[in-house]
Amino acid sequence: MYTQEQIEQYIWDYIDGLTTTDEKQMVEKLLKTDQQWMTVYNECLLFNEKIAGADVIEQPSLRFTKNVMEEVSKYKIAPPAKSYINKKIIHGIAAFFVLSIIGFVVYGISLVDLSATGTIKMPGADMSKLKLDWSKYLNSTVLNIFLLMDVVVGLMLLDRYLRRKKETRVQA
Question: How many Å apart are CA 30 and CA 139, to the nearest integer?
């Protein structure tokens, strides 16, 4: 059978005269035999009559554009972003994120096991004594402290930015 959407689509096409002759005959046959089709058809016709009988939307006055522009001109135009954005704040935020990325990269590199690559032989130097155990220095506690410091610095920069923004509003 047909879904509700399909029935409505066929009926709207029938009302608008967009159906082919075969579809037109099929819809007329179903309208005579099926109560659901007849109900949907009557609803669509009623809706179509209400739309046709509705008042025509009035056109705006000829002075509409001028009235709108006069209202807009009453408001203060915002200055360009360059005049109120502090470059130091932007640089501070960028430095914060760059340091965070560098910290994550260093931490990730410290987790790599480089012992499988072999040893490097240099004349007069024993490289096995120079091997560093990064797990002593970069553990979860150090990482958590680093992230905490990044968050604190980020919040300090945000606070400074918001205070300056508030001061410029009070002065204006």
Answer: 76
Bridge partners (DSSP) of residue 122 are 125
Q: Is 0.70 surpassed by the pTM of this model? A: no
* pLDDT 10s digits, 133-153: 667 777 888 888 989 999 999
146 vs 80, which has greater pLDDT?
146
Q: How far apart are alpha carbons 93 and 87 in whole angstroms?
A: 10
Tokens of 172: 């204006």
The b-or-e profile of 74-99 (16+ CB within 10 A means b, else e) is: eeeeeeeeeeeeeeebeebeeebeee
Tell me the mean pLDDT in the region 164-170.
85
Across the chain, how many H-helices and E-strands are there?
A: 7, 0
Structure tokens at 170: 């009070």
How does DSSP assign 79-113, residue by residue? PPHHHH--HHHHHHHHHHHHHHHHHHHHHHHHTS-
